């Protein structure tokens, strides 16, 4: 087979291949071809502009167009990159209302902000234009008119790239707009308009507006065919919480990219600015490779991270580094070889910039060495640290440019930029390795292939036995290093967890410490229905044999602006425990794998809220922390009422309550029975619980909760949640209602959840018309008697608040609960200390504000 035939066969194979890697290659190749086409057109336009206007007017145009690029890139508020984060998340999760809202809202928000910035800029030029050079004012006015439509094109580019519509994404900005500018300039030249920067900017305005509107029409046509019709939902706070850090990253990146031109314009004449810009344009061909790869793989980073596909993510990161560096190196060598004649095309004076090419190439190749790591960090929730890197790089570049440009001119500007790019690349690589365990050099294999619990090899023979270091109590058992080898970590939404419900239920049945609140019968309805649970995800660890090792509902918790974190989910106080489900046979290994996975997903800290301090899960967690060298901070803790069964009921109640109190309670019960006989009954069977639940909800709604609009019946999401949950639990015999009736009227109802040999006194409600005779207390006493005699129950958690005025006087034992913040990263972690201090401060401030409110209302003194 001839070389041509082999090449044709490879191309046909690539076009037929539908794998993600092949798709990414094709998208990258398509993006690269667009950029190559744009490069040719851009060179032609820049050469024609330089020849037509001369070095000085060309330098003015370059200065003004740089402001368009800078303002246009920054005023998108990061929403040009956010589509690659949100569109895959909403599309894969089936959140079509949010998807539709984002597709519209991202463009409207960015356009509104860009228009406001342009208006402020025009006002500033009108008021203070006299302080500028006379040649700059009118071009700057025209540049500001370009900004809103430039931003619209930028955001639509991001949306189209996420759908792999590279033609819609790149053709308007990189092919049509420069061609239209050339055509308009030819028409203006033919009409004898003066060859000035003002003329060129006028043509640029028309081209920018026309291409933006045409792109809008094309994109809307494709979106209508791809996106189901329906209502829109807007999560502005969530979008901006993600987009603003990306905006910071891109803003600093743009400042970094254009600082050299702006500083050079401040210290040197337009002639030198024009020569320098021509050299930058020539060498920027190398950056097209990086752009093309980033356009193809950024949304793949998000998809694989959301799906928990670690191996595919590592492979994509390694491939991206190779696809970026080697073509960039080849392109740089070609450009350096042909740079002098290419610059001559701009005009004889432009060859002065040839030495600058070599200096610029150093920085670009350093940046290409690490691949699109800034996109990886942004897509995996590390946008804050990425912004910090770019912020530091901008400050360094500005300082170096101010130091180097006055004495060395354009060579100083090039040196400042290249040195900054080298430092920035090193920082991005080191941070990505440490935070995500990712990042690869183009000639290496990268950090892939490590098992989730590889760090467990540092287990000490003796583990701390006290509660002082870890905030927990009890001895730590030895850790079997091989039990969780090859574990796989995932972050899943409720739909994905529903698909693996059987494996999840199996884990719940063999968990080291049972809890209904992290098990599927409770957690699936909670995550699916509760409005407060929209952001809840499930951290899951899988064993190599396919069984589930650990499962924990988590919710984002950003305690510091530059760190990511999570906390156990309490389902907005409807699930009063933060106990993880850990495989009982290998609990410590499962806990270590869980923390290791959270670290790689970018969650620096995990706050375990309401964790039973002396339970098996806490012991396993302490063992994992000590074994892997992770730190922890105790945030808070309290003891809540607990009933330990097995005692004689009457002896128990006599010991708990004074004889005087028992006498008063018996008197109240007799008064309740004066109107009608008092009867206690239980509902356990699946056919009995729906009616019992309805009676419970009616009691709750008739009291103070109903009057305040806080009863479950007043909230459609809570009502759907509790009905589905009770149906699930009743099917397995894991729920019971104890009711107290006066004649035919139910005056009190208690809801108890059961899991294994433990129970939870979950909720109680009573008819407040009988409040003076304490129906809730009598119901609790009867429930206590029955639970103490139940041979299938060992202990009952009251699920009550600390120092509860009723249950604490009856159930005297205490379940010790702790709020514990742990670092997901081994070693001393300053972030953990800062996050813990921030959480304590937040809690104290909340208490102070609550007390201030109560005093203002006159409820306390």
From TrEMBL:
Membrane topology: Multi-pass membrane protein
Main location: membrane
Keywords: Cell membrane, Membrane, Transmembrane, Transmembrane helix
Residue stretches making up the BioF2-like acetyltransferase domain: 659-798
Compartments where located: Cell membrane
Protein origin, superkingdom: Bacteria
A Gene Ontology cellular-component term: plasma membrane
Keyword Transmembrane set for record: yes
Segments passing through the bilayer: 32-54, 60-80, 108-128, 134-153, 165-191, 197-219, 239-258, 278-302, 323-347, 353-373, 385-405
One Pfam entry name: Polysacc_synt
Entry protein name: O-antigen/teichoic acid export membrane protein/CelD/BcsL family acetyltransferase involved in cellulose biosynthesis
